[in-house]
Amino acid sequence: MRHDATVTTSPEHQRAVDLATTANAAGDPTWFERLYAEADRGAAAVPWDHDEVNPRLANRISEPGTGRALVVGCGYGRDANHLRGLGYDVTAFDLSATAIDHARKRYPDVDFTVADVLDAPAEWTGAFDLVVEAYTIQVLRGPDRATAIRAIAGFVAPGGRALVISFAAHPDDDPPRIALAVTAEELDGFVAAGLTAGHVDLRPPSELEPPARWFYVADFSRR
């Protein structure tokens, strides 16, 4: 079975691939705003935007909770709203001002802000009881990936937790176009940044969820 890392079935989705390919070749991690702005005009589609909360997040975090939560690369905000519904005080951020504008209108009870994981506000360091990262690291390239991992780990407060969801690298992956799957060695970067690894799932592809991909769903904590 092939483990296809692409979601490109329409011209709108292909536009996202083209934007990512050009930006990655130029070392430009800011292409997300162009994608969301074009999607706002109907000229592109956001491949990772779905009509419901990320099922891997919902399966792992479904009980009521308290404390401060941070959602990394929140897009249109569905995952952040899921955590808000469970009782968390949620801050969520994205590099795209267009995405954040939509999220604020949809979910006014969440604190949405425009920010860059590679240059996050200093006051976020050690400030959150729960940090959720889904599919952000995998769209970065080069040293930005390790920088993002250190930053995400740094958001976690003493006694807090991080949940990391990503495509998992696999020997027969197709060549990356938007997502460059995360390796086990990269996940170890959260430990190197001061967190303790907890329950780490490597989940095989599901026939019910094409295209087939392997996933990591990984818990980390700060003691």
User: How many helical stretches?
Assistant: 7
- Helix percentage range: 25-40%
Q: What is the CATH architecture annotation? A: 3-Layer(aba) Sandwich
Q: Write down the CATH topology.
A: Rossmann fold
CATH class: Alpha Beta
Distance between the termini: 40 Å
* Secondary-structure element string: HHHEHEHEEHEHEE
CATH superfamily: Vaccinia Virus protein VP39
Number of strands: 7
Average pLDDT number: 89
Q: What low-confidence regions span 5 or more consecutive residues with pLDDT below 50? A: 1-8
> How many discrete domains?
1
Percentage beta strand: 15-25%
Helix/strand structural class: alpha/beta
Shape: globular
Profile the largest sheet: 7 strands, mixed
Question: Mind telling me the C-alpha Rg?
Answer: 16 Å
In quaternary terms, these chains amount to single chain
Q: Could you give the order of strands across the largest sheet? A: 3-2-1-4-5-7-6
Protein architecture, described:
The chain is globular. It has helices at residues 11-26, 31-40, 55-60, 78-86, 97-106, 143-154, 184-192; strands at 68-72, 89-94, 111-114, 128-134, 156-167, 196-203, 215-221. The chain is 32% helix and 22% strand. The chain is of the alpha/beta class and 223 residues long. The chain has seven helices and seven strands; from the N terminus they run αααβαβαββαβαββ. It has a single domain, classed as Vaccinia Virus protein VP39 (Rossmann fold, 3-Layer(aba) Sandwich). Strands 3-2-1-4-5-7-6 form a seven-stranded mixed β-sheet, with helices on both faces.
